[in-house]
Design brief:
Length: 574
Amino acid sequence: MAVYALTGFSLISLLSFGYLSWDWMKPSLVADVAMDPMEKSLPPTFSRPPHIIFILTDDQGYHDVGYHGSDIQTPTLDRLAAEGVKLENYYIQPICTPSRSQLITGRYQIHTGLQHSIIRPRQPNCLPLDQITLPQKLQEAGYSTHMVGKWHLGFYKKECLPTRRGFNTFLGSLTGNVDYYTYDNCDGPGVCGYDLHEGEDVAWDQSGKYSTFLYTQRVSKILASHSPKDPIFIYVAFQAVHTPLQSPKEYIYRYRSMGNVARRKYAAMVTCMDEAVKNITWALKKYGYYDNSVIVFSTDNGGQTFSGGSNWPLRGRKGTYWEGGVRGIGFVHSPLIKRKRRTSWALVHITDWYPTLVNLARGNLSNVPGLDGYDVWPAISEGKESPRTEILHNIDPLYNHAKYGSLEDGFGIWNTAVQASIRVREWKLLTGDPGYSDWIPPQTLTNFPGSWWNLERLTDGLRKSVWLFNITADPYERYDLSDQRPDVVRTLLMRLVHYNRTAIPVRYPAENPRAHPDFNGGAWGPWASEDDVEEWEGIEEPLKSRNKKKKKCKICKLRSFFRKLNTRLMSNRI
């Protein structure tokens, strides 16, 4: 039987807050009131294809929205969700690239070769070019397509860029982590460069503008210059609220009483992003798009608990396959929804947006067979049953194998040392090392010595490599049933075996020094020639080098200072 050590919170206090029952997400907490994957519903009977605005936030924790009981103010998200459909059985991936790749392709990571880690700035890797992307399908359906924000799907050659993958316009960053004002990104000591791009060019002139403001202004500009008579798709991938924790001072001031500094800055960034969504919604109404629009809001992965985020009361954090890493905030707001103002418990995964949105656009899916996503619009709009009954969270053969896993523990059919996770109806199975497994309460309390957050830690079961949970009855993953239900474990292991047979080889090539920004005018961008491509693609990076921890880039700010100083001196000469 598992033994739990609680620091700062007792079991009684958890019960008193209602966090050990499923009712913690009941509507009263809100301020306002097995099918084939290719089996599609009939297109909705709209008079015109709807305008589609897809908003993706970065590292926003499950607890970090007002209607989940957060201490962070998100009045816009709360209102839009309350007036639309909240998705409370919605799943994403635990880190950046995987969620974005599955949104754009409608396919699991094992079917694109991106099942390990993220695409790093110096890797000759990107979203496979043979994949037909969501914006490409929408272009086929007559849509004008635009992307604003974070790409993080590779850029080592021009064919990988957003404007070559289906977007008419692009303003944003190509890498996964930039300064909110200077747009500098350091991928290790001395490996620093500028990363803000307009189309396929470096947007040097935009430096100094806070990214959340810049991206929101761009969305408004796109809407102002387009005709609402013609369908438009805008993918808004906010950098917020990924580190570094930076926010305009006026937003931080609102949380001045919050004792935890990281949480204070993080909260300010969330509220700033919330106001950005408000401004986007206002622009939709001002320029005549709103009445025929569908707004989808999604997070990309769980919150990073050591950087201000909170997934409470879910277990785990960003980068893990516990619910805190893969259960997302999601809702749909649209005048076109038939049954509004409700909470949906339909099982939905981020791959589902591809077929759902293409069908809404009256597009054609016949040339993209084998999608892992389902059309979930009837479940969202009409409250019908979701066509999805299972989710492959992932199978990562390159992740560090669990020390105590074995083929024997997997009934001779699966090596439980391999990191994998799958959800089938109410059951969830994890094997290998799922990642950091603690429950971390909201990080606003400061009256506990020795730590700025309070922790509930599992103190036994560390020698395990198999976990089984009834997620419907136990959404917080407190009661491992793998010993009591070996029959269910075996059944889900067989599903992993089935999926693994369809997996393609992992694409995780070694980093290449030619990607250094110093060889590209001081900016991150495409660097490989056509002759290089065959030599590098598909080469896996040695495990030893993958596991090396990168040192923090302490010279980035200094390099940025001298680069800007040099720019000013040159401009003065001109």
